[in-house]
Amino acid sequence: MPVIAEVTIVPLGTKSPSLSPYVAACHRILQEATDIRYQLTPMSTIIEGELPRILEIVQKMHQVPFDEGAQRVSTTIRIDDRRDKSNTMEGKVNSVILAIGTK
């Protein structure tokens, strides 16, 4: 069953406070993966897919800032692994929207 993971990769000790080039380089890894879904947000990236594959992709993404010259990288991963029913990014959002509508 697919899981949903939130990933934040922060290169430290860069020459500029702008991280957009690092984020773009990490997203190239996601664009090459055809077996996952992802969504860029202002503060992180959400990835949906099989857990072993997500962990493999996150490991590749973690390496990207080093390849781009960063000397230190901090990566945070949160995983939502629901086993009683299928879980999707849209399903999670729709469930909140429905709950708002019932109040």
UniProtKB/TrEMBL annotation:
The residue ranges of the Thiamine-binding protein domain are 5-96
GO annotations of cellular component type: cytosol
Family indicated by similarity = Belongs to the UPF0045 family.
NCBIfam families, per database record? MTH1187 family thiamine-binding protein
Q: What is this protein called?
A: MTH1187 family thiamine-binding protein
Taxonomic source organism: Heliorestis convoluta
